[in-house]
Amino acid sequence: MATKPPQGDPVQDAPTVAERKRAAAGLPAIGHTLRMAHQQMGVKRTALTLLSVNQKDGFDCPGCAWPEPERRHKAEFCENGAKAVAEEATLRRVTPEFFAAHPVSDLARRSGYWLGQQGRLTHPMYLPEGADHYEPVSWERAFDIVAEELTALSSPDEAVFYTSGRTSNEAAFLYQLFARKLGTNNLPDCSNMCHESSGSALTETIGVGKGSVLLEDLYRADLIVVAGQNPGTNHPRMLSALEKAKANGARVVSVNPLPEAGLERFKNPQTPKGLATGTTLTDLFLQIRIGGDQALFRLLNKLILDTPGAVDEEFVREHTHGFEEFAEAARTADWDETLTATGLAREDVERFLRMVLNSERIVVCWAMGLTQHKHSVPVIREVVNFLLLRGNIGRPGAGVCPVRGHSNVQGDRTMGIFERPAPAFLDALEKEFGFAPPRRHGYDVVRAIRALRDGEAKVFFAMGGNFVSASPDTEVTEAAMRRARLTVHVSTKLNRSHAVTGARALILPTLGRTERDLQASGEQFVTVEDSMGMVHASRGRLEPASPHLLSEPAIVCRLARRVLGAQDDVPWEEFEKDYATVRDRIARVVPGFEDFNARVARPGGFALPHAPRDERRFPTATGKANFTAAPVEYPRLPEGRLLLQTLRSHDQYNTTIYGLDDRYRGIRNGRRVVLVNPGDAQELKLADGSYVDLVSEWKDGVERRAPGFRVVHYPTARGCAAAYYPETNVLVPLDATADVSNTPASKSVVVRLEQSATD
Ligand SMILES: Nc1nc2c(c(=O)[nH]1)N[C@H]1C(S)=C(S)[C@@H](COP(=O)(O)OP(=O)(O)OC[C@H]3O[C@@H](n4cnc5c(=O)[nH]c(N)nc54)[C@H](O)[C@@H]3O)O[C@H]1N2
Ligand SMILES: Nc1nc2c(c(=O)[nH]1)N[C@H]1C(S)=C(S)[C@@H](COP(=O)(O)OP(=O)(O)OC[C@H]3O[C@@H](n4cnc5c(=O)[nH]c(N)nc54)[C@H](O)[C@@H]3O)O[C@H]1N2
Ligand SMILES: [Mo]
C-alpha cells in the first residue's frame, strides 16, 4: 500500500532511484541553485539577495551555523544556503484569503511540502475556539488573547516558550527575559533535539559546552575526523574549509554508516580546478555501524595508551583529572567486541591509529550522527578522552568541533534560552533587572510534550520552528498539542504546527533575516553567533513580505508590555525602538559581550572567549579537563530487525521541504524511501523497489508504524537502515531519549520492515 498523498494535495510521492553521486557541488549545484531561486524570487531579486548573503554588510545566511571565512568570495553561499534564502525571500504569499479558502481541517491533510510552498505569511491570524477557519486579527487583539490565557493559568509553569534556532540574539534575550519575568524557566528549544548531548558532554569534561576551534584551526590541523555528519548537504561551506585544510597537508577520516558524496569528492564551484576535477576529501572512510562510535574511540584510546610515548603526559598531568580510572577502563577494550559493535575491519582501525599517531594536531567534527542515540553523551565523552590523551585541546590546529545546525542555535543558548539556566546567569539577570528570576528548572522539549499530554501545560508559544513535525512520536505530540488551551506560533512560513492546534490558536507573522527591519529609531540590525563562537551583525535589505509583519524583538516587547503591564520596570518600549539598548543590557549580563555595540560594529564581528581554547583553563567542577570512564554501550539488534536512522535529504531544511529529490543519493521525486544494505535486504527478502511499512519496536509495546516506503538497496553499513525525517518521526518513541541530555534517539530506532499490504 503506497501511501496516498493527502487529498487535494498535488504532491505525489513516487520515488525513482538512479546511481548515487560520488562528488558534491560543481556545476549541477549552481544550476539547481539558480533554478530554485528563480522559481521563488524571480531573476532580479535573486541577484540582489544572493550577493549579500554572508557579506560583512549583509545578512547572515539562515541556512546553517558554519562560520564565514575572513576573506570572503563575492558569492559566499552554497546551494543549500541559496535554497534557504529563496524559501524566505519567495514572492508567494499566504494571505487572509488563503485562510478563508483553506479551513484548518484542510491544512491538516496537506503535506508539509505543500504547506511550505504556499509562501510567506502576511497577517496575524486567529483561530477561535470551535472554529475551523483562521481569521485575520489585529496585533492588539492577538496580544490580548495571549494575555488572557497566560493570566488565567494557575502557575506560570503551565506555559511553555519554545525557540527554534533562527532567532537573533536580541530577540532571544528579550524572550527569555519575558518568560522569566513571568516566572518560568520553561524554555525548551530545538537544541534539546539537536546538540544537547554535545553540550552535556562538553560542559562536564572541558567546562564549556561549545566547540573549541576556529576556522584557522581547521586550516592548521594534521588530521580532521568527521564523524556522524553529512556536510555536503547540511554544511556545504565546510567542504571549502576541508579543501583548504587538505591543501595545507591535513588528512580527513570520515566515520559514517553511509558513504556521503560531499565527503568523498568536492568540486568547489568557486575555483576553475574545482569545477573541472575537484578534490578528494576523505583519506579513510570508516563505514561504522550506527551507534558504534564509543566502542571505536574506546579501542583507539587503549591502543594509544599501549603505544610508548603516544600520550601527552605533561598535558595529562598539568591539565586533566580522572586519568587513572579512565586508563583502567580503556585497557579492557576488546578487539572482538569493538569489531562487532562497529562492523569495521581490524585493518581499518589500525590505519586510523597510524594516522592518529602521525598527527600532532587533531580536530574532531561531528553532528547528529553522534548526538541522537541513547548513549550519545558517553560517545562524545569518549571523543573528548581521545583528544585529551594527546593534548589536542587548547592548542592551535586541534580541538572539538560540534557543528551546529540552525544559524543561531548556539547564540540563543548563550542568551539564556535554556530550561536549566546556570545560577550565575540568573544572578546577573537579577542584578541587571531587579527581579527574582525563577530557579526551578523548566521543561525541555520531551518534558514539555509530556506536560501538554498530561494537561500540566496549557499555553504553548513558539518563537519559530515547527514543533509538532520536528518532535518525536508524532501522534503523541499532536494529541498533546491539541490538549492545549492556546497555541501561538511566531512564524515566517506556514507549517504543520499551524494546523495541529490547541483550543485557540494564533499565527504571528514575522520578518525574516533577509528583510529590512525599520523601528522608531531607524533601521536595525541584529546579531548572531556561529558554530565557532564568532558574533556578528546581520542586516536584511529586502522590503518585508508584508507591511503587517512585526520583527521578533517587537513581538516580544509588545507582548511583554501587554502581559506584565505598562508599569513594568523593564523598558520594553525603548528596547523595541532601538536594539542597541538591548545589546547594552546583554553586555552587562552575558560574559564575553562587554562593549557589545562597539565591538559588533567592526566588520566581521568578534570571537567570544573560550577558556579551554584560549588559555587551557577548564572551568569544570574539578578545575581540570575531566577524563571519564563510562562503560561501552552499543545498540544490540533482535533477529530480523534493522537499526533505523532518520536523516535529512538534500532538498530539505529540517521540516521545510524544498523539493522531492536527494540528488547525491540518487533518489528523485519522492521521500518515502528506506535505504537498506543489499545483504540485509537479501536476508530479509526485500526486493529493491518493493514497498514496506516501517514498524518500530520499543519496550512500551506500542506499535508505531510508518506505511508505504520504497525499499532502496544502498551501501549503508550492515544492520543499519536510513529514512528521512520528519516522515519517520512517528516511529521515535517519546521516551526513547539519550541519557543525561534527554535528546530523542532519532538515529537509533529499532524497526522491522513489513511488506506493505497491497504490495
Ligand atoms: N541543507 C540543510 N542544511 C542543514 C539542515 C537541513 O535540514 N538541510 N539542518 C541543520 C540542522 S538543524 C542540523 S542539526 C544539521 C544536521 O547535520 P547532519 O548531522 O549532517 O544531518 P543528518 O542528515 O541528520 O545526518 C547525520 C549524519 O550522521 C550519520 N550517522 C547516523 N548515525 C550515525 C552513527 O551512529 N555514527 C556515525 N559516525 N554516523 C552516523 C548519517 O549517515 C549522516 O551522514 O544541519 C543543519 N544544516
Ligand atoms: N527524527 C528526527 N527528528 C529531528 C531531527 C532528526 O535528525 N531526526 N533533527 C532535530 C533537529 S537537529 C532540529 S534542530 C529540530 C528542528 O526543529 P525546528 O527548528 O522546530 O524546525 P524547523 O523545521 O527548522 O522550523 C521551520 C519553521 O521555522 C519558521 N521560520 C523560519 N525562519 C524563521 C524566522 O526567521 N523566524 C521565525 N519566527 N520563524 C522562522 C518557519 O515557519 C518554518 O516553517 O528537529 C529535530 N527533529
Ligand atoms: Mo539541529
Could you explain how this protein is built, in words?
The chain is built from 32 helices and 33 strands. Strands 6-5-18-17-16-7 form a 6-stranded mixed β-sheet, sandwiched between helices. A hairpin with a 2-residue loop joins strand 19 (517-519) and strand 20 (522-524). The model is unreliable at 1-5 (pLDDT under 50).
In short:
This protein has 759 residues and is α/β, with parallel strands linked by helices. Helix content is 36%, strand content 17%.
Ligands present: ligand MGD, molybdenum atom
Q: Report the C-alpha radius of gyration, rounded.
A: 25 Å
Quaternary structure state of the chains depicted: single chain
DSSP strand tally: 33
Mean pLDDT rating: 94
Total domain units = 4
Instruction: Enumerate the spans where pLDDT stays under 50 for 5 or more consecutive residues.
Output: 1-5
Shape: globular
Strand order of the largest sheet: 6-5-18-17-16-7
Largest sheet: 6 strands, mixed
Instruction: Assign the CATH architecture of the largest domain.
Output: 3-Layer(aba) Sandwich
Classify the helix fraction into a percent range: 25-40%
Q: Count of helices?
A: 32
Q: What is the CATH top level name of the largest domain?
A: Alpha Beta
Give the structural class.
alpha/beta
